[in-house]
Specification:
This protein has helices at 13-25, 55-58, 68-74, 85-99, 122-125, 128-143, 155-162, 178-181, 195-203, 209-213, 217-224, 226-235, 266-286, 319-333, 376-394, 418-421; strands at residues 5-10, 37-40, 50-53, 79-81, 106-110, 113-117, 147-152, 170-172, 252-263, 289-300, 305-316, 340-352. The protein is an alpha+beta fold.
């Protein structure tokens, strides 16, 4: 039986979700999607970047990821609204629930993308394009936003198809259509062909996806190693990856934070690193894993970035241990004078929490935290477990370390800033 895969991609997700919410729930009269508008962060907290923009704003040259001041220079009347991640999560969940009505095999690829394996559903739903349009129209009718749907025999081609002309359309890209629909496209449009890869391909005279598909694979491998074979297969529409309803396990856990002021002292930097260790440790324990590699990243006031990592003696998910290793790396990396605007902590090479711990003399160090003969890590682990239980039941702020009580630093930092989770619409203009 021929495979049948759909890729569903929300059109301009963050802006569309905000627009639909304002119109259908806040009695808004203007649609952000047809205005010169954008979703943007907070300039004062130095999170002032463009997260999404309307098609009309795009015509001014505004790009996702650029700073708000840069965007306003291009379009002074740009209407900027704050991000609302709690809304985005609700919209994403509602969108995925609709897809599950058509097949049990739904793989959420990102907050605004998903694959559906529709193989063998023809007798239930009919022709592929027909059912794709049914899904597309239902999402628009029930949720108020639009999607593009790509239809093919594998995930790669379905995703490529969904990127064709937008918005609110269904496109097919079956193997027999590759030469006509995909090969004439610029090679930069190919999945996994990034800027650096395309630069190398252009040197080889490869300009289109068709050029790449018909190029000598051995020469590609000489210039691009194994990645050359990957993109050559992609250019020829080859992909055997399954649609998996079960999300793959994380290979690493990281958090970072932009700081509202330049950090120039080790005490403040240490508190921020502790808050990052707190959030990363909670995530590791939540998923029942430990990390063997810790890395720290520093972005200076002039945006220069540097990082340092270390393989631990034994894997851990204990907040205090993560912090001690991270602060040690920080002291090795920082020059004690360059102002810092951004800090990051990453825990990699994860393994199951049940893995045995290799004891050492350092674990048996004399400490008031443990009883005679009991290693520190046991007590520290118990403290973390208790903290997680309290926070899960009463909220993240129900328990915090005393060091944060008199400092303007969030005790659990990283990821999406708290102010972005919800929006107080009584304090902003809803057109």
């Amino acid at each position: 039986m021929r495979r049948l895969i759909f890729h569903i991609d929300v059109n301009n997700a963050f802006l569309s979700w905000e627009a639909a919410y304002r119109i259908h729930h806040l009695n808004g009269t203007e649609d952000l999607r047809v205005m010169d508008s954008a979703i943007g962060g907070d300039i004062e907290s130095r999170r002032g970047i463009i997260l999404a923009k309307s098609l009309s704003a795009k015509r001014y040259g505004i790009k996702t990821g650029e700073s708000i001041p840069e965007a306003l220079k291009k379009c002074p009347h740009l209407f900027i609204v704050p991000p609302h991640y709690q809304l985005y999560e609700r919209c994403s969940k509602a969108f995925i629930e609709i897809l599950k009505d058509y097949s049990p095999d739904v793989e959420q690829f990102s907050i605004d993308e998903a694959f559906i394996d529709m193989t063998g559903t023809g007798r239930i739903w009919g022709e592929p394009v027909r059912v794709a349009n049914i899904i597309r129209e239902r999402i628009r009718r029930d949720l108020g936003f639009t999607v593009n749907i790509g239809v093919s025999t594998n995930k790669l081609l379905a995703k490529m198809a969904s990127e064709f002309r937008k918005p609110d359309l269904v496109h097919t890209l079956f193997p027999e259509e590759i030469k006509v629909k995909m090969w004439p496209l610029p090679v930069k449009e190919l999945y996994f062909a990034g800027w650096a890869t395309c630069k190398k391909l252009h040197v080889l005279g490869i300009r289109t996806i068709g050029d790449l598909a018909n190029f000598d694979i051995e020469i590609l491998k000489q210039h691009l190693k194994s990645h050359g074979e990957v993109i050559w297969n992609n250019a020829n529409g080859r992909d055997v990856s399954p649609v998996s309803a079960i999300a793959p396990a994380n290979k690493g856990y990281g958090n970072s934070t932009n700081i509202a002021f330049d950090v120039t002292d080790t005490a403040t930097a240490g508190l921020i690193i502790l808050s990052l260790a707190e959030s990363v440790g909670m995530r590791l324990r939540r998923d029942g894993v430990k990390s063997e590699v810790i890395s720290i990243g520093i972005k200076a006031h002039d945006f220069q970035y540097m990082s340092h990592q270390k393989t631990l003696r034994t894997a851990t998910n204990i907040t205090n241990e993560l912090y001690q290793e991270a602060i040690g790396l920080f002291h090795e990396l920082w020059d004690y004078k360059t102002p810092i605007r951004h800090l990051a902590l990453h825990a990699g090479r994860v393994k199951d929490e049940g893995a045995a711990r290799q004891l050492s003399l350092f674990d048996m160090a004399d400490s008031p935290l443990h009883s005679a003969g009991s290693p520190d890590f046991i007590q520290l682990g118990q403290v973390d477990t208790m903290s997680d239980l309290v926070r899960n039941r009463y909220g993240i702020d129900a328990l915090k370390r005393a060091a944060f009580l008199s400092r303007p630093i969030d005790h659990v930092s990283g990821g999406i800033a708290r102010e972005k989770h919800t929006v107080d619409y009584t304090k902003i203009v809803v057109k």
